[in-house]
Specification:
70% helix, mainly alpha
């Protein structure tokens, strides 16, 4: 593999990845009991949970929110929040899948990828409709 490609690959030591891991852990812990010392990013995500969960429910209707694995849900919430920020969606999805493989069960990576792919497709269609004056 060329050296430049190796340098471009993210690692577990990448500060952005470390930050995402920390936020996922906080969101996961918060799903069980109130956490008093949350990071500012986690607090922002928690304020958006009702809106984020509606997006998840729209594309994963056979999985009620309370039945989704709590770590998968934490990862989805972070990634969907990142969709709404300057993070490129494909980066958010890639990071989410990596986190799901690290923290989740055997099917977590596939589940997270599928949900986020569907949400991204839904968002793209809505943007296209607005651009064409149909929304």
């Amino acid at each position: 593999m060329p050296l430049l490609r190796l340098l471009q690959m993210k690692t577990r030591l990448d500060p952005r990845h470390i930050k995402r891991r920390s936020v996922v852990k906080e969101l996961f812990a918060q799903s069980f009991t109130h956490q008093p010392n949350l990071s500012p990013l986690t607090r922002k995500i928690l304020k958006r949970v009702p809106t984020i969960d509606k997006k998840i429910q729209r594309v994963a209707s056979s999985w009620p929110i309370d039945k989704i694995n709590k770590i998968d849900l934490a990862i989805l919430r972070l990634a969907i929040y990142e969709f709404e920020t300057a993070t490129p969606p494909k980066v958010a999805i890639d990071e989410a899948v990596e986190l799901a493989k690290e923290f989740g069960g055997d099917n977590s990576g596939s589940f997270v990828n599928g949900v986020l792919g569907s949400i991204l497709k839904d968002l793209s269609q809505k943007k296209g409709a607005k651009k064409n004056g149909r929304a």
